[in-house]
Amino acid sequence: MPATAMHKFITFVGVTSILHAAYSAAQHRSYLRITEQEFTTLPIDILIQGIASLFIVMYGIMYIAGDFKEIRAVVDLENKSWETLRNLPSFQIFNHRGKSLWQEGAALSNAYI
């Protein structure tokens, strides 16, 4: 499922619509404070716009995010061999103090020869 320009546009429209619903809700609350009315609930049009925008954004994000991975780890591990599983490149260190110790030891042994 590659993300197309249309999916990105749909997501943009959804996010803009959510922001508009949030602004409308804040404006409604401000209006109620000015007119000294009690807040009971948001108008139905703001609720519908917020919920519809949420679903539009979720639809667009599903296509933009790309392919989903399987939740079970066994599915990914079935295709790997034991040697690949035990190979941890993040723990391989090539620059360590043994390198400098070896150079000093070689220089000392050459001095005694």
Walk me through what this model shows.
The chain has 113 residues and is mostly helical. 68% of the residues lie in helices and 0% in strands. It is built from 5 helices and no strands. The chain is elongated, with a radius of gyration of 31 Å. It starts with a helix and ends with a helix. Belongs to the membrane magnesium transporter (TC 1.A.67) family.
List keywords for this structure.
mainly alpha; single chain; 113 residues
Topology overview:
Elements: H1 5-34, H2 44-65, H3 73-77, H4 82-86, H5 97-111
Pfam family, one: MMgT
Subunit structure: Component of the ER membrane protein complex (EMC).
Organism: Ooceraea biroi (Clonal raider ant)
Produce a short descriptive summary.
The chain is mostly helical and about 110 residues long. Helix content is about 70%, strand content about 0%.
Count of the domains:
1
Please give the share of residues in helix.
55-70%
In whole angstroms, the N-to-C terminal distance is: 69 Å
Total strands: the figure is: 0
Give the mean pLDDT. 81
Task: Name the poorly predicted regions.
Answer: none
The description of the largest β-sheet is: none
Approximately how much beta-strand content do the residues carry?
under 5%
Order of helices and strands: HHHHH
Q: Give the count of helical stretches.
A: 5
Organism: Ooceraea biroi (Clonal raider ant)
Membrane topology: Multi-pass membrane protein
Subunit structure: Component of the ER membrane protein complex (EMC).
Function: Part of the endoplasmic reticulum membrane protein complex (EMC) that enables the energy-independent insertion into endoplasmic reticulum membranes of newly synthesized membrane proteins. May be involved in Mg(2+) transport.
